[in-house]
Amino acid sequence: MTALIKQSDEALVTGGKSDAFLPQLLGAINQATEIDITVAFIRQSGLELIFDALKDAMDRRAVIRVLTSDYLDVTEPQALRRLMLLAERGADVRLFSTDGDPSFHIKSYIFLRHSGEDLFGGCAFVGSSNISNMALTRGLEWNLRVDYPADSVKFLEILSKFELLFSDSRVFPLSHAWIDGYAARRRVSLQMVSGEPEEELLPATPTEIQADALLALQATRSAGHRRGLVVLATGLGKTWLAAFDVQQLKARRVLFVAHREEILMQAEATFARIHPDASIGYYTGKAKEWEADFVFASVQTLGRDRHLQQFAPDCFDYLVVDEFHHADSTTYRRLIDYFQPRFMLGLTATPERTDQADILSLCDDNLVFEWNFVEGINADLLCPFHYHGIHDQAVDYTEIPWRNGRFDPSDLSNKLATRARAKHALSVWRELRQSRTLAFCVSRTHAEFMADYFSQAGIRAAAVHAKSAMPRNAALKQLEAGSLEVIFSVDLFNEGTDLPAIDTVMMLRPTESKILFLQQLGRGLRLHPGKDYLRVLDFIGNHKAFLNKPESLFGVSSLREFVRRQQNGNLPLPKGCYANYELGVIGFLNEVIKTLPKGIVDTYELLKLAEQRQPSAVEMYRAGVNFTHIRSRFGSWFDLVADRGGLDEAQQRVLQRHRPYFLEVEKAAMTKSYKMVLLEALLELDGFIHPQTTQDLAIRSGEILLRRPPLMRKDLPARFQNLAEVLASKPGQWLTYWNSNPVNAFVGGNKKQGKPFFELDADRLKPNFELTVEDRDLFHAMVQELANYKLAMYMDREQKGAKASVVKTPTAPVEAGVVWDKLPFFPNLKIACGHFKDADGENETLVKIPTHYRADSSRHFIACASGNSMDGGKNPIRDGDYLLLELVSADQAGSISNQIMAVERQDASGDDQYVLRVVRKRGDGDYYLQANNPDYADFDATEGMRPFARLRGVVAQGEVVEG
């Protein structure tokens, strides 16, 4: 092991810039298996300098004991809260109470190195340095070093005295409760205490970008949103933004959720800086401090039902979910559905999935603010990059097994850890390198191999991973100081790590995930003195796993567009950036383009290839695939996924058990969003397993609509536009309305054929099918995927449906002063004026017709006639006419004899078909359907047919305009 402790005849460290204590301290921490620290004062400015080293020591299971005091109230509460992070991971942190005692001035640092039970080395420093920036970096502080075993008598005496002091009756374990009381009573001079200047950190203030995002967050809440997603590129301070917004909202209790402890610890430090008086606790596998003001929780722990039940759903004012691109997992969804804060903020630096409703829907389709790395570079907030696409000619990736969207890890590592490949990488690096390089490797074996190869070539290099000899903090400090030139890393620097000094990134591993690629790129984009640009050396091989990089980096819509732009020299690059691809890479990409897909299956496979995972229903919808065509060929969306090998054994089991219900959701006609809102309420309340009362479902549905103001404004009648007030003062009115709309539809409504999937058992909405607890999570996820698709499609209608659909231009001028009504229009719902014809009600937009038609948007809608079977009689209906139709139900239809009705039936595959006919009655309960055009034969009405709308009239072409 490289010796990091200063070795010289000088046992006295005298401080100042020429002999600062900090390097000695860090070197000792990085080698120790046991660390004992006793200081009178601890300040945040000093603790920050050694905190990463202490955390790395805990990662390698070193034993840490820290003792400080409240002498003269100099120790800072925020520093004590930071120490509690170590305590929650197993460190023993205690405080000496000076109540009644004149002083506490001890400063000692003891480091031991064990091999098993045997103590083989160590050192102790006793002197004048407290833990503060001044004392550790530039203050004139004397600290005498005593080494073991060289001076074992003195060393063991110091260790013995520490043991006595640590068990003194005036010493007690540090707790957040004690820190709260200490912060409240603390009185300390801001000028000077015991000869040492106060180093309180200045209050943090938002950057210009953060200020803009804070205004957007304030505006979105004013508009009624209770959830929102913010995309901020790495380096722009998304965690700081969250802490500032908590301050802006004046939230008292906050829950911060992430999937890695590293992220939680960095977030805690940020929040403690802005909210120094708040108590902070952790809810992880090691700590369960749920009563703190700010709780930082591991989603793996808190996302379990038994842990969620420890909290009331509304106990937090503010919920932050970091690295939100991970939030599509069942665990995240369960947590997000459970809590009902005043506001939930999703944060991500990687926007690759923010246009997909399966992620964005968790924030109620509310993208509040986005500032990606391109915008950050253009605004001079991030560093420009010079990108080099290197042909990875030493590796044939087609020989490496590819399973479940990934290379076989062992075979990949073996193929990459070769002398030929390392020689190529070294040659490229020597030609293009700058000063400080971070290289991403695929495995520990790969990282160690590369570090050894570079070291043998005279390059100062080190491998850094969870079990490496060199701790991460030491490697980063040596890289910044110039004593290391290259760090070969495995998984330690993807998320939650600041590396501003890095000026070269070398990507030596295939990154199947676009998110991972952007995270690795982002490690080097932070600004740093002396760094003009980031050099990116990206090794690209002959495999589909490399195809996602161009789209991620340049924002192009397809591989074809990228190759065309690259060859024409007009790639969309941020200012100051540069990109170059070797000819071998372009040749490989051109070969791939020849095999790119075109049909439904091909589109599915292309999406799967681009994302390195199964595409979602929303992605297929947004890729332009018609779901009616999917059902015609495969039966349903999930049958397509199963056909392409996208369902595992458990998912296939759930599909077989619940295919009819999945198809019901997939095909649901949506004149409003209510069905999907009620479905989301059922999912959030676990109503498929535990039937919920209609009142509880109505309230939760109302809360969902309140979170989604666009849906509320679009769908609710005027009397419910102030829904929050209605829920509070007139819940009965809302319950009646909700029961008459989606609840009625769920239990069969006016449907005569087939058993409905739900029934009312007393006042509870109960499924008519059994869902086992074993299948619940998979069933929920599959239903949620379909609901996301339906809502995404529904939300798109108002925004782009009118532009996408063919609404005919008025053929005659509309008189000035006409007053309009808005009605739903279904361009895909072709009412056959001939024989029954396949159609669906999945696409909807709004059109306007004059008020003289006396239309009501809650009952009436517009569809198009298709064919000429009704082209006859006094009021002929011709192909393409706009039909004004009124929805009817069994209890509202009244007499339908001799009236023109739109009739629905299902074909053998379950798809909907529609026809327009005059309903005639032969005898008691015997009906037939008659055409106005004598060229078309009559046919009998059967049990499988359902009149669903009454024709109110034909709207003139010139009187239907886009809404």
TrEMBL record:
Gene3D superfamilies according to UniProt: Endonuclease Chain A, P-loop containing nucleotide triphosphate hydrolases, Umud Fragment, subunit A
Alphabetic keyword roster: ATP-binding, Helicase, Hydrolase, Nucleotide-binding
SMART domains: DEXDc, HELICc
Helicase ATP-binding domain sequence ranges: 219-369
Source species, domain of life: Bacteria
Ranges where the Helicase C-terminal domain occurs: 421-570
Record-given protein name: ATP-dependent helicase IRC3
Organism: endosymbiont of Ridgeia piscesae
Record-level Gene Ontology MF annotations: ATP binding; ATP hydrolysis activity; DNA binding; helicase activity
